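Lab notebook, page 48
Experiment: co-folding of the full assembly
Goal: obtain a model of how the components sit together before planning crosslinking
Operator: M.T.
Materials (sequences as entered):
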Amino acid sequence: MKTNDRYEDTALRKVVTRQTEEKERATLSDNFANSVMQRIQHEQQIADIERLTVTGFTRYRKVAAVAAIALLVCGLSYAAWEYIIDSPQPPIENRKVSAEIPDGVVNFSNVRLDSILYRVGRTYDHAVRFNVEELREWRFQITWNPNKPLTEFVQLLNEFDGLDVAERNDTIDVSAKGGK
Amino acid sequence: MKKNNYNRRATTPDESKMIGRILGGHTEEFGVLVNRYAESVVRVVRRIVPSAEDAEDVAQDTFVAAFQDLKRFDSARASFKNWLLGIASHMALKRIQGSAAFSFVSIDQEQWGDMADAEVDEWLNDTSTHRLAQLDKAVKRLAPNDQLLLSFYYYDDLRLKEIAAIMNCTDSYLRSRLQWIRKKLCQTIKSLEEYEDQ
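Observation: model returned without errors.
Model output:
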């Protein structure tokens, strides 16, 4: 039986209504919207870092490619020269491409400390705890090699004045040097 | 209980402007949309995900996914709310099924084709206590996506075109699906009656 091209189905409608109302009994936590917005901000920071990282990589790769081509051209020129002149030449040293960037190395450029540490913590499966909230906003220019142990990166961070970073029980603990 | 107040119009002008501003970098304005639709989203998710905690988790995932995909939102295809509910339904089904959402099984017309439409109408309009109890069991035996379709159709009174926009399929498919579900419910009731007679 249809009314206005819709099934009436009085009994089925009753059952569906009752079941839906039972299922829908839920209240949202008070800070739901805040939690969503915090997650969005966090995701954005990670996306920003990844974008910066990709840009950094591209730049380094371009430099490496140009250096490699330059070396190749120099090498070929030298070989041609040696062939034509046919005279012994001293061996050329340092022919290696200097800009060897291992895969996965991240160059943080003017990035907030909390963003850096969340990104790093995710890789090593560590939580991040700031004992001094202001430290979150400090910005750093630093390189991180995820292929190396976390302790190395922590040591590097501790070289900065006023910063005390420690790795304890799967947590990266951040304090002010000399503070709490 | 308050029903979802579905907006049958396209996205409101203020929402379109707001979405434009969010895409332009005013991300904090997304919080207004979260506040506006959080309840609707979590209620739809609860229809599929029984645990309140999981449902809230899925609702959060829905908004984060919506934010990340905001530039793909097309106000000509669906209202912002229905687009959001589509994401919520997919994520909720994915949470309970652990796989791609809306995997409707094929409609076996032959199996249910022998039931006359008049008979189906009669059964689904019979509000006797006994029949309602049987129908309650039969509906619970349906796949979650079929139950969701019924809730959109009978509880929210959405048009098939609107449900199609949420469930990302065509309204003609949903029309066939609905017919199939109605017949399947009657078939399940028949089986239950046979079982009770034994």
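Interpretation: Chain A is about 50% helix and 20% strand.
Next step: discuss with group before ordering constructs.
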